[in-house]
């Protein structure tokens, strides 16, 4: 799942982003509305965590833009205002959920996961192909009934391949979905990650390389 955090308090934005990365999300950060609109115009995001009280281009304007032009991106709006009228106003702009500051990080993660499931409504809660089973909510992977311990990035790559339902996923798509905008497109990190995934998942191999294109689990 790819998330964009838009928050003008740099320490808070960076802390939220780092916490979400530890939960295996691919996270980008923008510190103002201009930066948010630029990233939204280039990248696809499952969830937008949006501070309503941004300078210059405000959170309301960003929210209207996303709800009008990016219907597949779910919006979690943040604000220090706790009045019911403020929450209603934020939801009426097109936000999918609303969270007041200060907030518990565990609640933020739960809400982001819930919005991510809505963004991918067609995907089953548990992904299975052959004897391979991945449970995103429990962060568990089983192969033939055997638990497989994966790193965050290995899990994210495997999840994207399973979500494709047998279709080929390009290397560019995997880098975009499992890492973030700062990843070097010429890095070999994806090749190494797939190699370790294959080793951990065991025989017979389940991940196939499509030369010059990407990978698939047929």
Quick one: overall form?
elongated
List the secondary-structure elements in sequence, H or E: EHEHEHEHEHEEEEHEHHEE
Sheet with the most strands, sense and barrel status? 5 strands, parallel
| C-alpha end-to-end distance | 22 Å
Please indicate the percent range of residues in DSSP E strands (runs of 2 or more). Answer: 15-25%
Helix content: 40-55%
The quaternary structure here is single chain
User: Total number of helical segments?
Assistant: 8
Structural class: alpha/beta
Number of strands: 12
Radius of gyration: 18 Å
Mean pLDDT: 86
Low-confidence stretches: none
Spatial strand order of the main sheet: 2-1-3-4-5
Would you mind describing this structure in some detail?
The structure is a single chain. With 218 residues, the chain is α/β, with parallel strands linked by helices. Helix content is 42%, strand content 21%. The protein has helices spanning 10-22, 33-42, 59-69, 84-92, 105-119, 152-163, 171-178, 189-201, and strands spanning 2-6, 26-30, 47-51, 74-79, 97-100, 127-129, 132-135, 140-143, 146-147, 169-170, 208-210, 214-216. The chain is elongated. The two termini are 22 Å apart.
């Amino acid at each position: 799942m790819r998330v964009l955090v838009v928050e003008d308090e740099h320490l808070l934005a960076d802390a939220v982003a780092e916490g979400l990365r530890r939960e295996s999300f691919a996270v980008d950060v923008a510190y103002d509305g201009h930066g948010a609109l630029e990233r939204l115009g280039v990248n696809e995001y499952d969830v937008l965590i949006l501070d309503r009280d941004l300078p210059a281009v405000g959170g309301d304007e960003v929210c209207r833009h996303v709800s009008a032009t990016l219907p597949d991106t779910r919006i979690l709006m943040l604000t220090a205002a706790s009045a019911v009228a403020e929450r209603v106003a934020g939801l009426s702009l097109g936000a999918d959920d609303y969270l007041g500051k200060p907030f518990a990080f565990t609640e933020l993660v739960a809400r982001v996961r819930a919005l991510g499931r809505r963004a991918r409504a067609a995907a089953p809660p548990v992904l299975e192909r052959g004897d391979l089973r991945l449970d995103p909510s429990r962060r568990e992977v089983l192969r033939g009934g055997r638990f497989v311990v994966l790193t965050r990035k290995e899990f994210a790559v495997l999840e994207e391949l399973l979500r494709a339902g047998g279709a080929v996923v390009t290397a560019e798509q995997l880098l975009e979905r499992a890492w973030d905008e700062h990843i070097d497109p010429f890095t070999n990190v994806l090749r190494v990650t797939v190699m370790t995934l294959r080793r951990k998942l065991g025989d017979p191999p389940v991940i196939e390389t499509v030369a010059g294109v990407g990978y698939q689990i047929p």
